[in-house]
Amino acid sequence: MQCTLCPRECGADRSGGERGFCGSGILPRVAAAQLHHWEEPCISGMRGSGTVFFSGCSLGCAFCQNNAISRDPLRGRETDVDGLRIIFADLIEQGAHNINLVTGSHHADIIAEALSVPLPVPVIWNSSGYESLETLRLLDGKIDIYLPDFKYADNALATRFSGINDYYERAEAAVREMYRQTGKYEFCSNGLLKRGVIIRHLILPGEIQNTLAVTDRIAELFSNGEVLFSLMSQCTPNGHCPELNSSVTAEELDAAKLQLYSAKIDGYIQDLDSAANGYVPKWSD
Ligand code: SF4
């Protein structure tokens, strides 16, 4: 069967052993499954988010902080539907507030099957934002919280850093579909997020106009109280992207904050001291 799970639609016959752009086989590989404390406070809570990091990626950004696994689809432990259910149960037993599926688009079919048995905690789809609508519809009713990136408002940047020229329209359609599925964000009485969409945006050093255009577009698409926005400043030089070999400046962060405040978008702002490799999890071999 030809794979069209992500918008690259490269058509690889993965069940026949072919590997497409993402490099992934038919079964998912998990590079780490752990309680993670560095998500937004409403996701991490006190005990941590039960985070499952999948190896490989269908987008492949040059500045990816997880490039050790996103560019190595054979890393980690291969698993299947039953194996995923065991991983979820184990994280929940450890006290996870939620199950947080990181970069799973290239295995969305298997993940959706694993989620056909409902979990007792919210399920989060943590994604690059480069999603096909058909794939998102496989997840309809199974995901409580969408955590998509909205990386670029400018496809020239998407071409430069991610090798695609349709990110902007794909991400916009994806966040609309995510919102259609979850509706307005809702918190539990303990301050944790119960359902909704948090749109993340990573400021790219030297590209503040992109950030301002993204926040403008989110403010046009959604009214106050509908989605949350998470402004991230942790872009860390990763040795794979000479064009982005510095960190976000205080001036750039201030300009982005000002824009968010004036657009009256609710959400989170990450401090500049988050730009450190210590925030990158430890991966399985
Ligand atoms: S998920 Fe992988 S194999 Fe499938 S279309 Fe995307 S890049 Fe190609």
The CATH class name reads: Alpha Beta
Principal-axis shape: globular
In CATH, the architecture is Alpha-Beta Barrel
Class based on secondary structure composition and strand pairing: alpha/beta
Mean pLDDT: 92
Question: How far apart, in Å, are the first and last alpha carbons?
Answer: 29 Å
- The residue ranges in which pLDDT falls below 50 over 5 or more consecutive positions are 277-281
Provide the helix percentage: 25-40%
Q: Which ligands occur here? A: iron/sulfur cluster
The biggest sheet amounts to: 10 strands, mixed
Give the full name of the CATH homologous superfamily. Aldolase class I
Q: How many individual domains? A: 1
Q: How many strand units? A: 10
> What is the strand content?
15-25%
Give me the strand/helix succession: EHEHEHEHEHEHHEEHEHE
What is the count of helical runs? 9
CATH topology description:
TIM Barrel
Q: What is the CA-based Rg, rounded? A: 18 Å
